[in-house]
Amino acid sequence: MTSYMDKGEKPEKGHIVNFHHITFWVGNAKQAASYYCDKFGFEHLAYKGLETGSREVVSHAIKQDKIIFVFQSSLNPGTNEMSKHLAQHGDGVRDIAFQVEDCDFLVKTAEKNGAVILKQPWIEEDSFGKVKLAVIQAFGDLTHTFVEYPSPYSGLFLPGFKKTYIKDPLLSKLPHTLLNFVDHLVGNQPDEEMLPVIDWYLNCLMFHRFWSVDDKMLHTNYSALRSIVVTNFAETVKIPINEPANGKKKSQIQEFVDYYGGPGIQHIALNTSNIIQAVTNLKARGVEFLSTPETYYQQLLEKLKTAKIKVKEDLAKLQELKILVDYDDKGYLLQIFTKPVQDRPTLFLEVIQRYNFNGFGAGNFLALFEAIETEQNSRGNLIPHTDDKPPKPFY
């Protein structure tokens, strides 16, 4: 496991500020948005569709604190980009949008370093103000949208969206889920495709390496992975990039790639300041989480006896809820992972709480892998790996 201290020089222009929103392409945007409101405690925010003059695509934006998800579906029959995307990938993340400063500079820098610009910067406006946008191609079919505010914008979300008036009286009676902001998003790659993606972020978006771990640490008796985390200069946008490593059976990364039909976003980590209450309430709303073996907590209790850090939370409660703990001498994190949120075993969510700990739960990967492998086995996908390539070094 490696942490990288060299951030490089601070860019003079083109700062990436934070995650702005995440766009999903789905078969039925209205129902998908309602699912996340029902299960994960989001609220309907804004809408764009036939009633607002959008003739091709419908968009439902939902929000919880600083998290905004946008669900989009095609309005018309026939073969278009969205229908092809859905046929190949199923429901999933299409775009990760960043709030930026100096969109023009970012686009020019990305293009100079080899990025494909899908939409050059353009202005959208309504009675609430103006927003500058641009779209670039990332890995696989994923895109990144830059969102710049040349002047203050007072609308609910973005120009063209109208206030959503959907109100479900039953949802107001459900417990709040206490999810605050996007902590990170994880992108899975086919074998030997991770490093080019890392280089793309470093060169095109001026990111730097933040953290990495290889398959010597991240493995079980059956499967393994390699992971490198990239981040912007301010370290407010973190994207771990994974690839599978050779193992006796198909890894969870390879399972994702197979069912998604290529590289894509495997999971979204949502930060909370009270994970015990958040998970308790999410379970009350019907969210299904991976189950952690009891042996994990027996080993954890033994390790914490000699650790220099003290976990404030009730360990018995963490065990009851199956929340994982990782730590170092400075702090710790608490995390838990949902089961896939659609029929294909692709996208899932993570709930995470941090106490002065910037890692990504490497100490929990064994327990996580074993839990995922139990689910893989139930799907008939924990099968022998047929790739006979010799193991390669981690870079």
CATH superfamily of the largest domain: 2,3-Dihydroxybiphenyl 1,2-Dioxygenase, domain 1
- CATH fold-level assignment of the largest domain: 2,3-Dihydroxybiphenyl 1,2-Dioxygenase, domain 1
Indicate the radius of gyration in whole angstroms: 21 Å
Query: How many individual domains?
Result: 2
Approximate strand percentage: 25-35%
Top-tier CATH class of the largest domain: Alpha Beta
The secondary-structure element order is EEHEEEHEHEEEEEHEEEHEHHHEEEH
Count the E strands. 18
Structural class: alpha+beta
Strand order of the largest sheet: 1-12-13-14-11-15-18-17-16
How are the SSEs ordered, and which strands pair?
Layout: E1 2-3, E2 16-25, H1 29-40, E3 43-48, E4 57-64, E5 67-74, H2 81-89, E6 92-100, H3 103-112, E7 117-126, E8 129-137, E9 143-148, E10 162-163, E11 179-188, H4 194-204, E12 208-213, E13 224-231, E14 238-245, H5 252-260, E15 264-272, H6 275-284, H7 294-306, H8 315-321, E16 324-327, E17 332-337, E18 348-355, H9 365-378
Parallel strand pairs: 2-5, 6-9, 11-14, 15-18
Antiparallel strand pairs: 1-12, 2-6, 3-4, 3-10, 4-5, 7-8, 8-9, 11-15, 12-13, 13-14, 16-17, 17-18
